[in-house]
Hints:
By secondary structure, the protein is an alpha/beta fold. It has four domains: about 5-165, GAF domain (Beta-Lactamase), CATH 3.30.450.40; about 190-355, P-loop containing nucleotide triphosphate hydrolases (Rossmann fold); about 355-435, Helicase, Ruva Protein, domain 3; about 445-500. About 50% of the residues lie in helices and about 15% in strands. The protein is built from 20 helices and 14 strands. The strands form four sheets. It has a five-stranded antiparallel beta sheet with strand order 2-1-5-4-3, sandwiched between helices. It is flat and about 115 Å long. The N and C termini lie far apart (about 110 Å). About 30% of the residues are buried. The model has no long low-confidence stretch (mean pLDDT about 85). The protein binds adenosine-5'-triphosphate and magnesium ion. Magnesium ion (MG) binds near residues 218, 219 and 283.
Amino acid sequence: MNYKRLYEIGKHLLAESDSEKLLHAAIDYAIEMSGAERGMLILFGENGEVFFETARNLKKKDIENPKFEISRTIINTVREKANPICLRNAHDVPLFQKSKSIDRLKILSVICLPLQYQGRLFGVLYLDNRTVRGAFKSETCSSMEEFADLISLSAYRALERKKLSNRVQDLEQELRQEYEFETVLGHSPQMVRVLELVSQVAETDATVLIEGETGTGKELVARAVHRNSQRKNMPLVSINCGAIPENLLESELFGFEKGAFTGATKRRKGKFEQAEGGTIFLDEVDEMSQALQVKLLRILQWGEYSPLGSDVTCQCNVRIVAATKKPLNELVQKGIFRDDLYYRLNLIRIYIPPLRDRKDDIPLLADYFFQNAKARLSKPAERISSEVIEWLIEYDFPGNVRELENIINRAVILCKGPEIKIAHLPPEITKKFATTEVPFQLFKQAKKNVLENFERSYLLKVLKTSRGNIKKAAQLSGMHEKNFHQKLKRYGISAKDLKK
Ligand SMILES: Nc1ncnc2c1ncn2[C@@H]1O[C@H](COP(=O)(O)OP(=O)(O)OP(=O)(O)O)[C@@H](O)[C@H]1O
Ligand SMILES: [Mg+2]
């Protein structure tokens, strides 16, 4: 092997950053340099498991063959002893003659080298020749030992790089998942189920139907499905079928050709074309006319549609995520929604329950919206009082999460002090609880109010009797003076005021 070639090989190996490519190249070079017939490179993981194996002119089947046992024994010996082995004919060596199936006529010249880095063995390079006894000259053996050092160094570096980049990818993945779901909050069992479903179905291309009342987070979930799918780098196109007049919806969805109707002066892309390769979010899909339902069915069945005013059939690759506030099965029963379309859409159904049915989520969401609002608006509010949270839990949120978000934003704006109090809540909530009927769950609060009123008037009375003398008042009430002071402070009562 000439020096120039060796230099080229070394340069290539050290420059190769893809560990797989590097290892494949290394084994090819090893065969080229040694003149071996076959070769194999094995790498071991930290726990001794084989995590990389590549072979030339050898098949996995061959290795498992009993005839290969001699080679396996040699590899294991090198692995254990971490010393190179270079043999004229392995069959001559008693240590390696264990195998009963050895074909005595066979010749096996072997070079087997440990791959090590900083004293740790992490792989073995195996080369052999079955036709020439002493196929490897002693110079070949020693130059291959040197070459093994080069492979070790470059392979080790490439593997470390790979480990690092895997780690980075894992971290990114974790971060991405955390981030993607960060906005879809919920720890109630119902929401956990929704989130699980989202993560299960996101990666598939399945059509998803999201059902839930207004403000429950249908659009948010639709976005989460897209962003956690393989289509995430392709467009997500949303269209609200209920907000667009029926006669325009078709051209919005499928586009139109020039001259399709008066005023169509040039061709226009429809939403399906815009969403090619990505996802389309059909909001309020229940509002689609029967005629359009047929066209949507065609897309779901065949992936086909025709732009308005065109005979051309377009093929599309778009994932459909649809949402509805009304339960679609009821519309099917009433004959308003086509049943065949319903079955296609309903492949995977995600139902988001109303907020009143998952009250566990209220404190979490309230805090989340509060932190968001605080960061956005520079207002003095620092916390939400526990009383407010209790009232929010009591309320049944006809507008669901959106309503909660608005309530919190409003409170942060109105709040002039550090704490959001009942006074900052909108009348819908306070009116409800201002009625005589105090809900059972508010018992704690009611008790606290009564107790506070009692304490305040008691303190005032006893102070009046002692003519503002705190020591005496404390004695009269059987309290420690320190304790008495604390209570006065708590109720903002000043003894001086009473002396007057
Ligand atoms: N689980 C949640 N975590 C955080 N924010 C949420 C959650 N659910 C809803 N929201 C927020 O509530 C608001 C309403 O959500 P979204 O628009 O997705 O509801 P929707 O079901 O599509 O409502 P509509 O039927 O009225 O269109 C949004 O600001 C959204 O970010
Ligand atoms: Mg919506």
